[in-house]
Amino acid sequence: MPTSTSTTLAPEEEEELPASALISPAFFNFAIASCFVTSIFGSTVNFYLFYKFLRREGKANGFQKVCLVKTLPNFMICFAFLFWVVPVTALSLTYSQLPYRLNSIVGSLAGSWAYLFSMFFDSLKSMTMTAF
Question: How confident is the model at residue 38, as a pLDDT?
């Protein structure tokens, strides 16, 4: 029985296009502006609330402590969008044009603050509610 050697050809790579090339310019500008305004507003409000909850006179109740702890992950997420997502998108950079390590670090930090640390802080807070 003859043996056949088949060569598998790599699939043709598609050209990587930035978001600005895939959607209308008006929607692209609206999306950038929306992310920018939301991230500035979110960063500012969460920083202000963190400061106010931290500097509040008298003994804080449990709700105030939970709010204080929740401002940290919210601030970090908004901050990551403000200084990474908005500039990368506005400059129309593609994934291959970004520094891999930096992109991984920023993405991991923003994601971990959003999903892991927020829940972790809530769990710690509920376990140590009487200690504070």
Answer: 96
User: How far apart are alpha carbons 132 and 126 in whole angstroms?
Assistant: 11
End-to-end CA distance of the chain: 79
pLDDT at 9: 46
Structure tokens at 130: 């009487």
Domain boundaries, the chain: 24-127
What crossing angle do the helices spanning 100-111 and 62-80 adopt, rounded to 10°?
Answer: 160
Looking at residue 114, its pLDDT comes to 74
Those residues whose C-beta lies under 8 Å from the C-beta of residue 65, and which sit 6 or more positions away, are 53, 125, 129, 132
Q: What is the per-residue pLDDT for 109? A: 83
Low-confidence ranges of the chain (pLDDT < 50): 9
Can you state the angle between helices 25-54 and 62-80, rounded to 10 degrees? 150
d(CA 60, CA 68): 10
Where are the alpha helices (H) located in the chain, listed in sequence order? 19-22, 25-54, 62-80, 86-90, 100-111, 118-127
